[in-house]
Specification:
The structure is a single chain. With about 250 residues, this protein is mainly α. The protein has 7 helices and no strands. Helix 6 runs antiparallel to helix 7. It is flat, with a radius of gyration of 26 Å.
Length: about 250
Protein backbone atom coordinates (compact mmCIF):
# COMPACT_ATOMS: atom_id res chain seq x y z
CA UNK A 1 0.00 0.00 0.00
CA UNK A 2 1.41 3.37 -1.00
CA UNK A 3 2.17 6.02 1.62
CA UNK A 4 -0.55 8.19 0.11
CA UNK A 5 -3.07 5.51 1.05
CA UNK A 6 -1.99 5.72 4.66
CA UNK A 7 -2.67 9.45 4.67
CA UNK A 8 -6.16 8.81 3.32
CA UNK A 9 -6.78 6.30 6.10
CA UNK A 10 -5.73 8.71 8.86
CA UNK A 11 -8.65 9.09 11.30
CA UNK A 12 -10.06 12.59 11.37
CA UNK A 13 -12.67 13.81 13.80
CA UNK A 14 -15.99 14.06 11.98
CA UNK A 15 -15.01 11.63 9.19
CA UNK A 16 -18.01 9.61 7.98
CA UNK A 17 -15.88 6.45 7.80
CA UNK A 18 -15.36 6.48 11.56
CA UNK A 19 -17.91 5.01 13.93
CA UNK A 20 -20.24 7.52 15.66
CA UNK A 21 -18.99 6.40 19.07
CA UNK A 22 -15.39 7.31 18.14
CA UNK A 23 -16.51 10.67 16.79
CA UNK A 24 -18.36 11.42 20.01
CA UNK A 25 -15.33 10.48 22.08
CA UNK A 26 -13.01 12.61 19.91
CA UNK A 27 -15.33 15.60 20.24
CA UNK A 28 -15.29 15.48 24.05
CA UNK A 29 -13.51 18.23 25.91
CA UNK A 30 -9.93 17.75 27.05
CA UNK A 31 -10.96 17.39 30.70
CA UNK A 32 -13.34 14.47 30.14
CA UNK A 33 -11.21 12.75 27.52
CA UNK A 34 -8.64 11.79 30.17
CA UNK A 35 -11.09 9.27 31.62
CA UNK A 36 -10.99 5.70 30.24
CA UNK A 37 -13.49 4.70 27.56
CA UNK A 38 -16.12 2.05 28.20
CA UNK A 39 -15.95 0.67 24.63
CA UNK A 40 -13.19 -1.42 23.10
CA UNK A 41 -12.01 -2.82 19.78
CA UNK A 42 -13.96 -5.59 18.10
CA UNK A 43 -12.69 -9.07 19.03
CA UNK A 44 -12.69 -10.95 15.72
CA UNK A 45 -10.99 -14.35 15.65
CA UNK A 46 -9.16 -14.00 12.33
CA UNK A 47 -6.78 -16.95 11.62
CA UNK A 48 -4.28 -14.54 10.07
CA UNK A 49 -3.60 -13.07 13.51
CA UNK A 50 -1.83 -16.28 14.54
CA UNK A 51 0.73 -16.18 11.70
CA UNK A 52 4.09 -14.56 12.28
CA UNK A 53 4.95 -11.29 10.58
CA UNK A 54 8.05 -9.14 10.35
CA UNK A 55 6.54 -6.66 12.81
CA UNK A 56 5.84 -9.32 15.45
CA UNK A 57 9.40 -10.62 15.16
CA UNK A 58 10.81 -7.12 15.62
CA UNK A 59 8.55 -6.50 18.60
CA UNK A 60 9.89 -9.68 20.22
CA UNK A 61 13.34 -8.07 20.33
CA UNK A 62 11.94 -4.97 22.01
CA UNK A 63 10.26 -7.12 24.64
CA UNK A 64 13.68 -8.30 25.84
CA UNK A 65 14.89 -4.70 26.05
CA UNK A 66 11.77 -3.75 28.01
CA UNK A 67 12.35 -6.49 30.59
CA UNK A 68 15.99 -5.52 31.17
CA UNK A 69 15.11 -1.81 31.28
CA UNK A 70 12.48 -2.52 33.94
CA UNK A 71 15.08 -4.31 36.07
CA UNK A 72 17.48 -1.40 35.60
CA UNK A 73 14.81 1.06 36.76
CA UNK A 74 14.27 -0.92 39.94
CA UNK A 75 17.98 -1.30 40.61
CA UNK A 76 18.83 2.36 39.95
CA UNK A 77 16.05 3.60 42.23
CA UNK A 78 17.30 1.32 45.00
CA UNK A 79 20.85 2.61 44.61
CA UNK A 80 19.67 6.24 44.59
CA UNK A 81 18.04 5.84 47.99
CA UNK A 82 21.02 3.92 49.40
CA UNK A 83 23.45 6.74 48.60
CA UNK A 84 24.33 8.97 51.52
CA UNK A 85 22.92 12.48 51.27
CA UNK A 86 25.41 14.30 53.54
CA UNK A 87 27.53 15.61 50.67
CA UNK A 88 30.38 18.09 51.01
CA UNK A 89 31.26 19.35 47.53
CA UNK A 90 34.48 20.96 48.81
CA UNK A 91 36.12 17.54 49.16
CA UNK A 92 36.98 14.83 46.64
CA UNK A 93 34.82 12.43 48.62
CA UNK A 94 31.77 14.69 48.26
CA UNK A 95 32.35 15.38 44.56
CA UNK A 96 32.54 11.68 43.72
CA UNK A 97 29.55 10.98 45.91
CA UNK A 98 27.44 13.60 44.14
CA UNK A 99 28.73 12.50 40.71
CA UNK A 100 27.67 8.93 41.40
CA UNK A 101 24.23 10.11 42.48
CA UNK A 102 23.77 12.22 39.31
CA UNK A 103 24.88 9.34 37.07
CA UNK A 104 22.44 7.01 38.80
CA UNK A 105 19.63 9.54 38.25
CA UNK A 106 20.50 9.57 34.54
CA UNK A 107 20.39 5.77 34.47
CA UNK A 108 16.96 5.81 36.10
CA UNK A 109 15.52 8.39 33.68
CA UNK A 110 16.94 6.75 30.55
CA UNK A 111 15.59 3.33 31.47
CA UNK A 112 12.25 4.72 32.59
CA UNK A 113 11.91 6.46 29.22
CA UNK A 114 12.74 3.19 27.46
CA UNK A 115 10.11 1.32 29.46
CA UNK A 116 7.38 3.92 28.86
CA UNK A 117 8.03 4.23 25.12
CA UNK A 118 8.53 0.54 24.32
CA UNK A 119 5.64 -0.72 26.44
CA UNK A 120 3.24 1.72 24.81
CA UNK A 121 4.44 0.85 21.31
CA UNK A 122 4.25 -2.88 21.99
CA UNK A 123 0.72 -2.54 23.36
CA UNK A 124 -0.57 -0.27 20.59
CA UNK A 125 1.11 -2.14 17.72
CA UNK A 126 -0.32 -5.49 18.78
CA UNK A 127 -3.77 -3.91 19.11
CA UNK A 128 -3.55 -2.44 15.62
CA UNK A 129 -2.35 -5.75 14.16
CA UNK A 130 -5.56 -7.41 15.40
CA UNK A 131 -7.91 -4.58 14.45
CA UNK A 132 -9.27 -6.42 11.39
CA UNK A 133 -8.45 -7.52 7.83
CA UNK A 134 -6.22 -4.47 7.30
CA UNK A 135 -4.54 -4.84 10.69
CA UNK A 136 -1.04 -5.49 9.36
CA UNK A 137 -1.10 -2.47 7.04
CA UNK A 138 -2.41 -0.21 9.81
CA UNK A 139 0.15 -1.53 12.29
CA UNK A 140 2.88 -1.04 9.67
CA UNK A 141 1.89 2.60 9.14
CA UNK A 142 1.98 3.12 12.92
CA UNK A 143 5.30 1.28 13.37
CA UNK A 144 6.96 3.29 10.57
CA UNK A 145 5.51 6.65 11.60
CA UNK A 146 8.45 9.11 11.86
CA UNK A 147 7.50 10.20 15.39
CA UNK A 148 7.09 6.61 16.57
CA UNK A 149 10.39 5.58 14.96
CA UNK A 150 12.25 8.53 16.52
CA UNK A 151 10.93 7.84 20.01
CA UNK A 152 11.71 4.12 19.68
CA UNK A 153 15.29 4.77 18.56
CA UNK A 154 15.82 7.31 21.34
CA UNK A 155 14.50 4.83 23.91
CA UNK A 156 16.72 1.97 22.72
CA UNK A 157 19.83 4.14 22.40
CA UNK A 158 19.20 5.57 25.86
CA UNK A 159 18.90 2.06 27.28
CA UNK A 160 22.25 0.93 25.86
CA UNK A 161 23.89 4.21 26.88
CA UNK A 162 22.64 3.77 30.46
CA UNK A 163 24.61 0.54 30.95
CA UNK A 164 28.10 2.14 30.95
CA UNK A 165 26.67 5.00 33.02
CA UNK A 166 25.52 2.49 35.60
CA UNK A 167 29.01 0.98 35.78
CA UNK A 168 30.58 4.44 36.10
CA UNK A 169 28.15 5.35 38.87
CA UNK A 170 28.99 2.10 40.65
CA UNK A 171 32.68 3.04 40.57
CA UNK A 172 31.89 6.30 42.36
CA UNK A 173 29.83 4.47 44.96
CA UNK A 174 32.63 1.95 45.57
CA UNK A 175 35.13 4.79 46.10
CA UNK A 176 32.82 6.56 48.55
CA UNK A 177 32.12 3.41 50.57
CA UNK A 178 35.77 2.42 50.83
CA UNK A 179 36.83 6.00 51.58
CA UNK A 180 34.24 6.27 54.35
CA UNK A 181 35.67 3.14 56.00
CA UNK A 182 39.25 4.42 55.74
CA UNK A 183 40.44 1.85 53.18
CA UNK A 184 40.80 4.11 50.15
CA UNK A 185 43.80 2.24 48.78
CA UNK A 186 41.75 -0.93 48.41
CA UNK A 187 39.23 0.93 46.25
CA UNK A 188 41.76 2.18 43.69
CA UNK A 189 42.11 -1.06 41.64
CA UNK A 190 38.36 -1.72 41.76
CA UNK A 191 37.52 1.80 40.61
CA UNK A 192 40.06 1.61 37.79
CA UNK A 193 38.64 -1.72 36.66
CA UNK A 194 35.06 -0.37 36.70
CA UNK A 195 36.02 2.72 34.72
CA UNK A 196 37.79 0.57 32.13
CA UNK A 197 34.72 -1.66 31.86
CA UNK A 198 32.49 1.40 31.35
CA UNK A 199 34.71 2.52 28.48
CA UNK A 200 34.70 -1.01 27.04
CA UNK A 201 30.90 -1.10 27.14
CA UNK A 202 30.78 2.16 25.16
CA UNK A 203 33.19 0.66 22.63
CA UNK A 204 31.15 -2.54 22.38
CA UNK A 205 27.94 -0.58 21.77
CA UNK A 206 29.60 1.51 19.07
CA UNK A 207 31.14 -1.53 17.36
CA UNK A 208 27.80 -3.34 17.28
CA UNK A 209 26.09 -0.30 15.75
CA UNK A 210 28.82 0.08 13.14
CA UNK A 211 28.69 -3.59 12.05
CA UNK A 212 24.89 -3.57 12.01
CA UNK A 213 24.74 -0.49 9.75
CA UNK A 214 27.31 -2.04 7.40
CA UNK A 215 25.39 -5.32 7.11
CA UNK A 216 22.08 -3.50 6.67
CA UNK A 217 23.52 -1.41 3.82
CA UNK A 218 24.97 -4.60 2.29
CA UNK A 219 21.56 -6.29 2.40
CA UNK A 220 19.93 -3.35 0.63
CA UNK A 221 22.63 -3.32 -2.07
CA UNK A 222 22.31 -7.08 -2.70
CA UNK A 223 18.51 -7.07 -2.87
CA UNK A 224 18.30 -4.23 -5.40
CA UNK A 225 19.25 -6.35 -8.50
CA UNK A 226 16.74 -9.04 -7.48
CA UNK A 227 13.90 -6.54 -7.01
CA UNK A 228 14.78 -4.87 -10.32
CA UNK A 229 14.70 -8.25 -12.11
CA UNK A 230 11.32 -9.13 -10.56
CA UNK A 231 9.88 -5.76 -11.57
CA UNK A 232 11.12 -6.14 -15.17
CA UNK A 233 9.75 -9.69 -15.39
CA UNK A 234 6.39 -8.53 -14.10
CA UNK A 235 6.26 -5.74 -16.67
CA UNK A 236 7.07 -8.16 -19.52
CA UNK A 237 4.36 -10.57 -18.33
CA UNK A 238 1.79 -7.79 -18.18
CA UNK A 239 2.77 -6.71 -21.69
CA UNK A 240 2.38 -10.23 -23.12
CA UNK A 241 -1.14 -10.69 -21.77
CA UNK A 242 -2.30 -7.10 -22.15
CA UNK A 243 -4.65 -7.91 -25.06
CA UNK A 244 -6.24 -10.98 -23.50
CA UNK A 245 -9.68 -10.49 -21.98
CA UNK A 246 -10.80 -13.36 -19.79
Amino acid sequence: MAPSSYKQMTPVSGDSRISPELNVHSAMSGIFSIFPRSDSMDATNDPRFFSDSVISKRLAAFQAVTVVATLMVTLSVKQMFLLQKNIDLETTHGVLQYMGFCLMVCVFLLNLTAVVVLVQQLFQTYRLMTVGPTGFEIAKSYYLNPNIVTMRHIAVKGFFFSLPLFVASSSCMVWVNFDSSGTTQLAIPIVIFLVIMACLLCTVNGKHQSIFKTRYSMAKVHEEPLLTHVAQTSQRSNGMFAGIDV
